[in-house]
Amino acid sequence: MKPFPTSFSLFNVFLFLSLLLLLGGSTTRAGPIKTVVVLVMENRSFDHMLGWMKKLNPEINGVDGSESNPLNATDPNSSRIFFKDGSQYVDPDPGHSFQAIREQIFGSNNTSADPPPMNGFAQQALSMSTDMVQDVMKGFDPSMVAVYRTLVSEFAVFDRWFASVPSSTQPNRLFVHSGTSGGATSNIPALLAMGYPQRTIFENIEDAGLSFGIYYQNIPATLFYRNLRKIKYVTKFRPYGLFFKAHAAAGKLPSYTVVEQRYMDSKLEPANDDHPSHDVYHGQVFKIIHFS
């Protein structure tokens, strides 16, 4: 089975290219990009979210249903699970620790294979639950993720852009704005509470004489960067519902604008970050509102 780039980093390429224009040269130089808005959804695999978009554009390195994984990666006669469409909005949360992803990529703890066989997804899911095996070998039909379908039809798709860390949420989110996880390969509550000390793009933006702002919904994950907890940055954090649309309509968004989703799930305010088992429908609705 081919490698599974993650949707977590789909926006990072555009972000990188945009920032080259935004920060390049003198701050007084005229340029086509004045504001970069960053929205990073949760880490689901490329094939799971966009693989079946290949039906709309054959040039996308997606899936066609011939891809499969054995239930036992060490048994050449093992039964195989073939990749299908039919993913549901609410899916179980598959293994995404560093150890689980190592097994998914290499089929075992032996990481010497080059290229990695990508043959342990069904096996690792089976170790968690027999009910999960089929779920991890499914992707969304384009009609189920209409916002992504529209974006795919209108913009470039980076289908070989991989996660920064083969691991869970926060190490990858730390990478987004700082280029490093600070050595983190898992979500360690004590270290997250202390905050990670590395320099971030926010300081670079400030040093370049430009502005930044973070529009959050319930918990700003950017506060896991210790430097952003300084008193001088308090005004950089604004509730999304109260300020984002108004600032966008008035042309007052900061040069570097970060939008954070609802990471916590409740009946009154369901999560819209796409993290399993959160409802992907709410993530689609959020992006409709955001991009409109």
UniProtKB/TrEMBL annotation:
Gene3D superfamilies in the cross-refs: Alkaline Phosphatase, subunit A
Alphabetized UniProt keyword annotations: Hydrolase, Signal
Pfam families: Phosphoesterase
Gene Ontology process terms (BP): phospholipid catabolic process
Superkingdom as given in the UniProt entry: Eukaryota
N-terminal signal peptide: 1-30
Classification via InterPro entries: Alkaline_phosphatase_core_sf, Phosphoesterase
Molecular-function GO term, any one: hydrolase activity, acting on ester bonds
Protein name (database record): Non-specific phospholipase C2-like
Source organism (scientific name): Punica granatum
